Amino acid sequence: MIEYLIFLAISTATFALFALGLNLQWGFTGLINFGHIAFMTLGAYTTVLLTFKGVPLLLSAIAGAIVAALLGLVIGFATLRLREDYLSIVTIGTGELIRLIVNNQELPVGKDWISGSFGVQSYVIPLSTTPNLFFRLLMIAVLTLLTGITLFSLWNWVRTAQISANNNPIRNSSLKQEFTSRLIVGIALGLLALAIYISGIIGLYNYNPKAGLMLLALLILAFIFWRLEILVRSPWGRVLKSIREDEEIPKALGKNVFSYKLQSLMLGGAIAGIAGAFFAWQLGAIYPDNFQPQLTFDAWIMVILGGAGNNIGTILGAVIYFAYDSLTREFLPKIVPLDVERIGAFRVMFIGLILMVLMIWRPQGILGKKEELTLGK
User: Fold this and answer.
1) What is the DSSP letter of 89?
2) At how many degrees (to 10) do helices 311-335 and 2-22 cross?
3) How confident is the model over 240-260, as pLDDT tens digits?
4) How far is CA 285 from CA 18, 70, 121, 175, 375, in A?
5) How far is CA 306 from CA 21, 119, 275, 319, 328, in A?
6) pTM (2 decimals)?
7) Which of 245, 368, 223, 224 minimizes the C-alpha distance to 309?
8) Distance (Å, rounded) from C-alpha 364 to C-alpha 375?
9) Could you tell me if 298 and 352 are in contact, meaning their C-beta atoms sit under 8 angstroms apart?
10) How far is CA 204 from CA 9, 169, 220, in A?
11) What is the C-alpha separation between 17 and 320, in angstroms, rounded?
């Protein structure tokens, strides 16, 4: 059970990072990117191939993020002056192009060259060796600090909504509804954080390499979330939102809209590249078929579920998605008398039904704001 919770925590953190990159591009800037998996693919392969060349893991992951950002630069120069529907077509084609190139080319693995279709195995993974007791206790202390900061931030986030509801009688009804939503989400995420914390302590003390990877993934997710929250509340972030709403307005104010779009595409791509590194480290071996277009649409589901233009909502969407995935994988075969193939199709159909109901009931997502909705543009 503990190992499974750790696995789910790594998966959720990895795809929360992946979805945060997409949320920056679409939720804040309005760029429709259906080829987001291309950034993850480049980040994953760059990271693992550089480790075979003796490059330290940290530098390999940074290089993977840079290569993914450069792909965003290339895509941006080629597509950002096109209309939105053309941009989406070009990006989905790019995602498939990258996967097919990797599948059909020979890759430099150490001193050898191997066919990309054979995949890449036996690469170095962070924190894979058992550390001494002092370092394990230090890791537990870091996890404790991270959990404490998370719980305090959630409490402050809920409290802010409560204060707003109490101090604004004119909008009292809508603000109370927002407070209720935040309270439910805050309690759910707080309980999840405590469950991960308990599993992490056990996994780190009786050292499990996956627990070390989990801690690293959560730290990177927390850092990127923190920096993104600062960025989207800055003047730079406000320009992105104005581009999303109507790019003619920032143009009229003298803003270089193309440059801002390019920056958003590159930064979102770099974040997805970092997610690619964690995806590769978690799998332990990567193949081109690990990077199917479906992963892009999984990220879209997470962003839409949580609410576009809301970073906490994106993380919530990732949590809901993996909770749904694990629960239906475990319990659905016991309830529905279908074979394995039909169960898989049923799970996809059911999450589609959930999305349709959500779009009718709350089209802005669970934590999204209706006035910032971009689906109806």
Assistant:
1) H
2) 130
3) 999 988 888 899 888 999 999
4) 19, 25, 4, 48, 37
5) 14, 34, 19, 9, 20
6) 0.92
7) 368
8) 8
9) no
10) 14, 49, 18
11) 15
